[in-house]
From TrEMBL:
This is Alpha-ketoglutarate-dependent dioxygenase AlkB. Residues 106-203 form the Fe2OG dioxygenase domain. SUPFAM superfamilies: Clavaminate synthase-like. One of its GO terms (biological process) is DNA alkylation repair. GO terms for molecular function: dioxygenase activity. The keyword Oxidoreductase applies. The lineage of its organism: Bacteria, Pseudomonadati, Pseudomonadota, Gammaproteobacteria, Oceanospirillales. It comes from the Bacteria. InterPro entries: AlkB-like, AlkB-like_sf, ALKBH3, Oxoglu/Fe-dep_dioxygenase_dom. Keywords: Dioxygenase, Oxidoreductase.
Amino acid sequence: MSISHQETCDILLASPRLQRFCTLLGEPEASDMLDRLDDELAWQQPRLRLYGQERPIPRQQVWMGDEAARYRYSGRTFTPEPWHAAVVRIRDTVIDRLAGNGVMASFNSVLLNRYEDGSDRMGWHSDDEPELGSDPLIAAVSLGAERPLRFRWKQGLGAPFNVWLPHDSLLLMDRGTQDHLQHALLPRRIPGKRISLTFRHVAASGGIAPTG
Ligand SMILES: O=C(O)CCC(=O)C(=O)O
Ligand SMILES: [Fe+2]
């Protein structure tokens, strides 16, 4: 039996809707994309002031998107990197897959995160900056090492839980998710690099708060 490319991996939460799709691009494209993004993007590791200390963030990142999707940080306005062809291809595949599942989405920017191994990480946050609109929809693509994204309820509505994100998976964090939940990529003893792409829609002259 062949596995349908439209396969839905699972609906993890009905409200707010959190849904994982287990095969986005298929092979060999997914592995090629991992290598291309790793090789061809201008990965950066900005320093952040956190708890009074300036440190490099524990991962690498690239902001990419439409020129209008600018963001402010530390009193400066940054223009995202122009769209890379490989990222456009992934973005459009995400939009198609979501549309095929009844979810209409458009994205004008993406944060790409590169985790060298399990010690690279991202701290607890919600992607709820005002510039992302009142109720953002965020689509996260994972390539490379499988790691869990950990979720916790803001108002203690339930127990924290892990969402394992395999290579070539897509996680839909639908509207409402950022209101009710925080997420983090915690350090784990998991070898291998991972690249994630979190697609968003930033309002013109918007901003993104950095996360430690
Ligand atoms: O790497 C991940 O899967 C999570 C990234 C994330 O939360 C973000 O980019 O806001
Ligand atoms: Fe996030």
